[in-house]
Design goal:
Elements lengths: L1 E7 L2 E10 L4 H7 L1 H5 L5 E11 L1 H14 L6 E4 L3 H10 L6 E2 L1
Parallel strand pairs: 2-3, 3-4, 4-5
Antiparallel strand pairs: 1-2
């Protein structure tokens, strides 16, 4: 699992590649801390190359949302494949996030 954080058009982008499972979650959580510490910038979670997400990964996404949204910013998810969309739909997370 790799995570790349960059800034693009005034937003912070997290690019995820691989499987965001329980084993990868602690590393990913520490890598996305800058997203949660930034104030007022929109966040884009790029899932184009994310092949799997576990409940631990969903928790990380939710933590980002709960930290960023009160600061007046938006959290967008892009590049979601059908398997990930099914997970988000079954868990109700599809209603929490904005999708691009």
């Amino acid at each position: 699992m790799t995570t790349n954080i960059l800034e693009k058009d005034g937003a912070l982008v997290a690019e995820f590649k691989g499987r965001l499972d329980t084993a990868a979650a602690p590393q990913v959580e520490s890598e996305v801390k800058p997203l949660m510490e930034a104030s007022g910038k929109d966040v884009i979670l790029d899932c184009t190359e994310l092949s799997y997400i576990s409940s631990s990964g969903l928790r990380i996404f939710l933590s980002i949302l709960k930290t960023v949204k009160p600061k007046g910013a938006h959290v967008y998810i892009t590049g979601m494949n059908n398997d990930l969309r099914n997970v988000f739909t079954m868990t109700g997370f599809i209603n929490l996030f904005e999708f691009k």
